[in-house]
Amino acid sequence: MNRPKPSFYILSVLMVLMVCFAYWNHFNNPFHFDDEHTIVTNTYIRDIHNIPLFFKDATTFSSLPANQAWRPGISTLDAIDCWIGSKGECMRAGDGVRRDSIHFTEFLHGFGKGPCNTKSDPIPYYYHVHIFIDYLILAFFIYLFALKIYDLAFKNDLNRYIALLTTAVFMLHTGNAETINYIISRSDSDSTLLIMITICAFLYIKGMWRYWLYLIPMFIGFMIKEPTVMVAPILFVYLYLFEEDKSIKQALDIKTDLKIFAKVLPAFLLAIGLFVFSQLQTPDTHSLGGTDRWAYMKTETFVMVHYVSNYFFPFDLSADTDWGLITSIFDHRVIIGTFFILLTLGLAAWASLERKSRPITLGILWFYLALVPTSSVVPFSEVLNDHRVFFPYIGLTMAFVWALFLLYKKYEEAIGAFFFGRPVIYMGIGLFLCAHTYGVRERSKIWSDEALLWKDVTVKSPHNGRGLMNYGLVLMGKGDYKGAMEYYNLAKTEWPYYSYIYVNLGVIYSVQNNPVESEKNFKYALSLNSQNPNCYFYYAIMLKNNNRIPEAQAMIKKGLALSPRHVDLLRFDAELNTSVRDRIESAEKTAKQNPTAENYLNLSLVYYNNSRYLDCVHAAQEAARINPKYDAAYNNICSAYNMLHDWDNAIAAGRKAIEINPANQQAKNNLALSLDAKNRLANAESAAKQKPSPENYLNLSLAYYNEGRYLDCVHACEQALKLKPDYDLAYNNICSAYNMLHDYDNAIAAGKKAVALSPNSQLAKNNLQAAIDGKKGK
Prior knowledge:
Blueprint: H1 6-22, H2 35-40, H3 51-54, H4 72-90, H5 124-153, H6 159-172, H7 177-181, H8 186-204, H9 210-213, H10 215-222, H11 231-243, H12 254-263, H13 265-281, H14 293-312, H15 332-351, H16 358-371, H17 392-410, H18 412-417, H19 421-446, H20 450-460, H21 465-477, H22 481-494, H23 499-511, H24 515-528, H25 533-545, H26 549-562, H27 567-593, H28 597-609, H29 613-626, H30 631-643, H31 647-660, H32 665-690, H33 694-706, H34 710-723, H35 728-740, H36 744-757, H37 762-776
Helix pairs in contact: 1-6, 1-19, 4-5, 5-6, 5-8, 6-17, 8-10, 10-13, 11-16, 14-15, 15-16, 16-17, 20-21, 21-22, 21-23, 22-23, 23-24, 23-25, 24-25, 25-26, 25-27, 26-27, 27-28, 28-29, 28-30, 29-30, 30-31, 30-32, 31-32, 32-33, 33-34, 33-35, 34-35, 35-36, 35-37, 36-37
């Protein structure tokens, strides 16, 4: 092979400089979207010593249970970049909590202002630098791959330049900006790098090692993202077209097919083994979010048209599209998509008839094979994502550039004869690359700011509830609550069952000091998705801001049960515990140093607000000892005993408070609560004993449930079922009681019977789902 001319090196340097210039404005772009749960709130990636754990425990991948998948390679890269960032700038004394993107908590009272008790926060800059370096390395392997294929197809002096042009077109393509700017999409770019290393190893290594060494980068690549397994069929196509010199017309030659398959059998076996292993490692909580497999497949036919259209005219790029499922096979989009796929596959078959045009065949088949993991039989919640085509676009670029080159060769003499022929072509190539460079910079600007990104989504994907919601969040961050509410309501119209919308509504109502509406939305969000730890986090903040500390702590506990290393939950838990501890210690110190009745009363109130009810009683009793006529102390004693369901002592204390001060309305209310509770339980027991009907036993079970006597609740329901075996409400109460006892197997069994007897009972469905969720979280 002849040595490259100086012009080749000049053009290579120029390409690298253009790529650097195209992405020069993206290095400080913030975290977005799924970066939040995989990086920002994921404690595991903040400690580089957790790297071995990533390979054993898939829950380390994300702070959201539904998104936890076995991708240890990505978590490793994220941990390394976080560690580099901590060495670079995160460890400066006094920095406190560093925030690189807008968080809800910045608009809620008090949280997020104290020092962080975890490792330093990840900084996007270091992630972007690492991803971009890998991107430049990828260019080298794309060039090697393209050059090898072009030489095998049609050896000529221009192949180096055509391979370089192929690399330049791919590296500067505007569509790739969606992947390079979106940090967690390094799973696409870095796995593609390993795919290209794998293929180049297979193409360039000679001898017996050829069929084994290439498996190493394939193995590593799979741990970054699963589509790496498509290396196996791509290598099969390469061998078929070039080493066996066959056209698609000869595809039914079984003997040849088996011969080729034997050469790449290790890759297929490794792919199957890795896939099975990853599925075994993936937690049960993981969900792709898709539902209708066949509707998804029909929709993907037209998605292919969108991807190819965006390749040639990348004006419709969106960070979050609003495409829905197409259910009818007769929908015009399915017909157009199917025809388009058949047409392009027919073009691939036609191009395979001559060896010199087979790079077109390989490129088209590469495109479709690379899309198999996301655009076939496995339904995802989003039917398309513009960052999914990073790997497929390599094949499309090869087919496109090589087709133009063959067209040029066909009319080379005519072009040469025209005085401005070749300069016009060179100028056209330059303008094409410059246009894409401009496109990359513009998309990087969009990704540089949450407001720009989500506004762009609302314009291009106006029916995407998540996009509308996120733009509402941006407006809320700017203090535009009216505008935020408008977008939240639009989002609710588009996606009425998306729990995050109601989380955000809960937040905005909390900010506007409307705790009733806030709590209503938080509860509805949990009814839609009880596995969302973020809901528990923001709900807890609302509770804390309304001085409902024990309830806030309970919410944090539930959130941490789902996501034990959720950064924001851990921070809030530490901050709340510190706040509680300081408040208690301060009240105890004051009461000890100055033992007045008022100070002990205040101490009893602090104990009460933190669910320390017996301590509350003892402090209030000390206040009453100092001042026997202190009706407020007896009121606190009554209230604390109410919380302990000790009705007799509560009644005695309440009566004492009213005896001292007949005008104490709070004491009257607490006493009424004690008497009502005691009478309600006594009446329920008496009714069931005197008239043992299913309804009376059900009422008794509810009374026991409210008392926290859950086993007694179950026994009362069992008595009801003896009298009425098909009593769905009794099974529902049993399910709910067993849920409180964390006996999820018995809860599920009872819940299933309740739903079977009353399929329309939403309460029974909710209790059954809570039992199922509880068992998963065990």
